[in-house]
Prior knowledge:
Low-confidence stretches: none
Number of helices: 11
Number of strands: 7
Strand order of the largest sheet: 5-4-6-7
Helix content: 40-55%
Shape: globular
Amino acid sequence: MKGKLGVIGGMGPEATAYFYEEVIRHTKADCDQEHINMAILSHAQMPDRTKAIISGEDKELLEAMREDVHAMELLHVDHIAIPCNTSHYFYDQIQAMTDIPIIHMPREAVRYAADRYEGVRKIGIMGTDGTISSGIYHKECERLGIEAVSPSEQRQRDVMSLIYDDVKAGKKGDYQKFERTMEEFIKKDCDAVILACTEISVFKKDHVLPAICLDAMDVLIRESILRSGAQYK
């Protein structure tokens, strides 16, 4: 019997919808019953994760996460996926709230990148200010002896604008902002670039990205399917 996947989403809503669509698309199934059972909680009013990290005022966010985790327990899910990279700064605190295993998206993404790009030495990280400043991807890279590269201050402004001014505002996204950041990563000799924000995953739907880009959301989708006992296609 397949396991039930719990999803704490809504950060943002479009990214959660994309996650759900992609889980369906990548699950090998010939009928409804061969798909995995999912309980999706779209908590759109979750406090902003970057603001919580930078300000240190995380009490409201963690209390909201506690309520969501409790809801997942009541729904008897077997694993939890959180399609929001920045929220994984609080991973240890959230995991301590429950015995249900929570998939660590940054850890799995870096591990997958190390396997996919043979001999990788440097990985560029494209994410929110909270993701970059907290070092959640940098720590996972360090575990595997890989150097994590952050954008310059100017290019990070491009990334934040792409995320907040474009995708979160319902726009397709300005490719030039993305391209300028990618060019900088290439100049810094990055062997791969992890798309470490689910809004950039949404951006990817409407644009063709370079082969060195690895979407952390794609890795979370794959792990979610496999851990639920289904086949990934």
